[in-house]
Specification:
heterodimer, A: about 200 residues, alpha/beta, Rossmann fold, 7-stranded mixed sheet, 6 helices, globular, B: about 120 residues, mainly alpha, 3-stranded antiparallel sheet, 3 strands, elongated
Chain lengths: ~200, ~120
């Protein structure tokens, strides 16, 4: 039993967390996806564009830097009485790459959202995941009125490796959105395991 | 000189919030790291932000990101404050799961999958 059932804010005492990133361009549906899957109202933190070690430059930074913080959406869903999944919607713009790379550390994998009206805008997220060597699934978040392509054409347009999973989903409904995560974890389970780190 | 956004959010200068420390004392803290508070350690003498973190974490387990959200602190500042509390033993940090070749890990992943299917 969940000892905190009277206060859903806390996670079960024995829980281990799992982190998955949701990537893609601006307005592709990352926030919607996180909100749909999350059991709690999606949360937001301000992430600093400077490294933690540069915090003392805070005041100085106000003078020259264009952007110093970025809001990051995240959500949480309890998968078992000892497993909680955290979903982080990572900003897609190239200027946030350093932050996204740091977010990738410790992540199980990434879900790349694609809008078929602007496929090329998801290249960047795929490149980031591939260069990090992180497992990923590409998920077309289908918008009403957006073109439908067959999977082969889409894979070609995305220059996706054949072994990467491609799914179609609707980020607005949980039953559909969760298919992206199921595909990601299924793929990870089917991979040869890395050697344990010593 | 402070931008209005900062004023409005009540954000203080980072080095005030962290008690003067600029960098976390450990690098292993992840946004999804879970924090478990030790109720036996006294809170007296803690800096204001550290006290707020303990006040939030004593009733139950939360991730670093949730602490940042609830206390309206930037993620990097939260990591600095939390690192100090891990060093002093007030908090235990439980890192997120990442798979290795262990059979145990495969079992864990299967349970993650099962949990997703049940959503």
């Amino acid at each position: 039993m969940d000892s905190n059932s009277s206060d859903r804010r806390y996670v079960p005492d024995r829980a281990r967390s799992v982190k998955v990133l949701v990537l893609g361009p601006f307005a592709v549906g990352k926030t919607t996806f996180v909100g749909t899957v999350s059991e709690i109202r999606p949360m937001r933190t301000e992430e600093r564009m400077t490294r933690a070690g540069e915090l003392v430059d805070d005041l100085g930074g106000l003078r020259g830097k264009v952007t110093t913080t970025v809001a990051m959406d995240f959500g949480r869903v309890t998968l078992a009485d000892d497993i909680v999944l955290y979903l982080f919607g990572a900003p897609g713009q190239p200027r946030f790459h350093r932050m996204v790379r740091s977010l990738m550390e410790g992540a199980l994998g990434g879900l790349v959202l694609v809008d078929t009206r602007r496929i090329a805008e998801s290249f960047d997220a795929i490149d980031l995941l591939e260069s990090a060597g992180l497992p990923y699934t590409v998920a077309v978040n289908h918008f009403d009125g957006a073109p439908r392509y067959d999977d082969a054409a889409l894979r070609d347009a995305l220059t996706m490796a054949d072994d990467r999973p491609l799914v179609w989903l609707d980020a607005r409904t949980r039953a559909s959105a969760k298919q992206g995560l199921i595909s990601l974890v299924t793929d990870i389970l089917s991979r040869p395991r890395p050697e344990p780190a010593r | 000189m402070s931008p209005r956004g900062h004023r409005r959010n009540g954000v203080v200068r980072s080095y005030t919030a962290t008690g003067g420390r600029a960098a976390p004392s450990r690098t292993s803290l992840d946004e999804a790291t879970l924090l478990i508070a030790d109720p036996k350690l006294p809170l007296a003498g803690l800096q204001a932000q550290a006290y707020r973190v303990m006040d939030l974490c004593l009733p139950g387990v939360l991730s670093v990101s949730e602490v940042a959200h609830h206390l309206r602190l930037p993620g990097a500042v939260t990591k600095v404050v939390v690192s100090g509390l891990v060093d002093s033993g007030h908090l235990v940090a439980r890192a997120p799961f990442t798979p290795t070749a262990d059979q145990h890990d495969e079992d864990f992943l299967r349970r993650v999958l099962h949990g997703l299917q049940q959503l």
